[in-house]
Design brief:
Blueprint: E1 9-16, E2 19-26, E3 35-37, E4 55-58, E5 64-70, E6 77-83, E7 101-103, E8 112-114, E9 138-141, E10 152-157, E11 165-170, E12 172-180, E13 185-187, E14 196-198, H1 225-231, E15 235-237, E16 254-256, H2 259-265, E17 270-272, E18 280-282, H3 287-316
Parallel strand pairs: 2-3, 7-8, 13-14
Antiparallel strand pairs: 1-2, 4-5, 5-6, 9-10, 10-11, 11-12, 12-13, 15-16, 17-18
């Protein structure tokens, strides 16, 4: 039963052009809408120690209610699903049986559309972090209704500024991609030390490297190219897959160089990871320039030998 001493209820009935218009006020004698409720403002409460909210929708026998309110400390309005004594917050469903929801959009074309098509209201979503400053919000993509396959997630993760990263993955980072705060990207690698670091193989139609003369200074010929080629040792080998499973090495027999050996001859084409282990890599594409110059030097030697052989043949006749 509603006690009238706590609620002022006034109904205005006005006839206009033969149509009845009624305005009802609760807590006000001058409502300006069909129904206007005026009450003491309050922020959402986490316990039932004090009155809270401006309007409540509750069931006769239900323990859960839906409260509406206007903040007393700021200019925001709120809606909260919870139990009657505030202590427990419940689920709030918007169109739980279907239908599109628009935020800043009156014609949403998806389950949730944020911003309008004209671009005058931008679609922006902010996911705030946890109390750990380097662990942010998370979006999960369910791959199956039964949970029989791994779900994909997008999140911000890290425990320090040095390892904070955006992740796109399922089950582990080895099955996805990360972007560090310095812009370094890792695929199957959570701590890339270069702009792009891939753990595993890459197949591409072509890969081009920057080579414009305008990008370069201090250009000098490669000294003793043939001697350097002769100092290199090409080997057949198998990757140590058992000791380094996280590197996702191929199990096929292959060929190449040993980085530590190459570093003694061509240190400029060996890269050392900026990690405790300091693993080394070889920039194989740079070897092409060395081979070209070595072939040219070798051809000079061949041409010289041809000239000398020609002279010897003339003398013999």
């Amino acid at each position: 039963m509603i006690k009238m001493k706590y609620i002022k209820l006034i109904t205005f009935l006005t006839l206009l052009s033969g149509t009845a218009y009624a305005q009802t006020g609760i807590g006000t004698t001058a409502p300006v809408n069909k129904l206007e409720v005026v009450a003491t403002t309050a922020d959402p409460a986490s316990s039932g120690t004090a009155a809270n909210g401006n309007l409540r929708l509750g069931g006769i026998s239900a323990v859960h209610v839906l409260d509406f309110g206007l903040s007393s400390t700021s200019t925001f309005s709120w809606i909260q699903a919870r139990n009657k004594t505030y202590g427990t917050n419940y689920i709030l469903g918007i169109n739980p049986l279907g239908g599109n929801v628009g935020i800043g959009n009156s014609t949403p074309n998806s389950t949730l559309t944020v911003g309008n098509a004209a671009g005058t209201i931008p679609g922006e979503i902010t996911l705030n972090p946890t109390t750990n400053a380097y662990e942010g919000g998370q979006i999960n993509f369910k791959k199956s209704l039964t949970g029989s396959t791994a779900d994909w997630s997008i999140d911000q993760y890290g425990t320090t500024a040095a390892d904070a990263r955006l992740r796109i993955f399922n089950t582990s980072e080895a099955n996805g991609m990360i972007i560090k705060e310095n812009g370094f990207i890792g695929m199957g690698n959570s701590a890339p030390t270069v702009r792009l670091q891939v753990t595993g193989d890459i197949i591409a139609n072509s890969i081009a490297g920057s080579s414009d003369a305008r990008f370069k200074t201090n250009i000098t010929p490669i000294a003793n190219p043939l001697q350097k080629v002769l100092a290199l040792r090409g080997v057949h080998f198998n990757w140590n897959t058992s000791a380094f499973p996280q590197r996702m090495f191929s199990d096929k027999r292959t060929l190449g160089f040993i980085a530590q050996e190459v570093e003694k001859v061509l240190p400029e084409i060996v890269q050392t990871e900026n990690t405790t282990e300091g693993y080394k890599s070889v920039q194989y594409d740079k070897v092409v320039a060395l081979l070209v110059e070595a072939m040219k030097e070798q051809q000079k030697q061949i041409n010289q030998l041809k000239r000398e052989l020609k002279k010897l043949k003339r003398r013999a006749h």
